[in-house]
């Protein structure tokens, strides 16, 4: 089944929370973890990966926490997925990867599936955090 990992799910929730509710202040890990019932340790690791790639910034100290370091309109879902899970690959085989599978030579669906994978990846690269927030705000009103 094609689905996002928990790590990506939590990462999307956290960065959307930081962007959507708290542009004027930093947000700490505990606040996000309590809001979404995410284990604090796991969330801390996720947030550190987002810091490492420059999507969010961290501020140390008693009033520390996280804030966006990039405008939400410049952050894509693909960037978040790549930061947390690596390259987006839906298919286990493709000619570009030079990975062979048992069915590779007789596979009659590889090309259409590669086209589908390209379209999905393209959509993830075009969908911004701003768009996710817009959909949430529209739904909440």
Please, could you describe this protein's structure?
The protein is 53% helix and 6% strand. The protein has 6 helices and 2 strands. A two-stranded antiparallel sheet has the order 1-2. A hairpin with a 5-residue loop joins β1 (56-59) and β2.
Describe the structure using short key phrases.
Arc Repressor Mutant, subunit A, 141 residues, 2 strands, two-stranded antiparallel ribbon, mainly alpha, elongated, 6% strand, single chain
Topology, please?
Elements: H1 6-21, H2 29-36, H3 40-52, E1 56-59, E2 65-68, H4 77-85, H5 110-126, H6 129-140
Antiparallel strand pairs: 1-2
Report the β-strand fraction as a percent range: 5-15%
Which blocks of ≥5 consecutive residues have pLDDT under 50?
none
**How do the SSEs run, as a string of H and E?**
HHHEEHHH
Shape: elongated
- The structural class is mainly alpha
CATH superfamily of the domain at 6-87 and 128-140: Winged helix-like DNA-binding domain superfamily/Winged helix DNA-binding domain
Gyration radius from CA atoms, angstroms = 18 Å
Total number of strands: 2
- Do you know the CATH architecture of the domain at 6-87 and 128-140? Orthogonal Bundle
Brief digest:
By secondary structure, the chain is mostly helical.
């Amino acid at each position: 089944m094609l689905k996002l990992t928990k790590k990506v799910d939590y990462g999307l929730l956290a960065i959307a929370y930081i962007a959507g509710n708290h542009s004027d202040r930093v947000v700490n890990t505990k606040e996000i973890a309590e809001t979404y019932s995410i284990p604090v340790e796991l969330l801390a690791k996720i947030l550190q990966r987002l810091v490492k790639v420059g999507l969010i910034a961290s501020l140390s100290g008693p009033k520390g926490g996280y804030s966006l370091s990039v405008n939400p309109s410049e952050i894509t879902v693909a960037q978040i997925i790549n930061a947390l899970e690596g390259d987006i690959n839906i298919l286990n085989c493709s000619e570009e990867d030079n990975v062979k599978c048992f069915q590779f030579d007789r596979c009659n669906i590889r090309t259409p599936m590669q086209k589908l994978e390209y379209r999905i990846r393209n959509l993830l690269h075009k969908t911004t955090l701003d768009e996710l927030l817009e959909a949430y705000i529209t739904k909440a009103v």
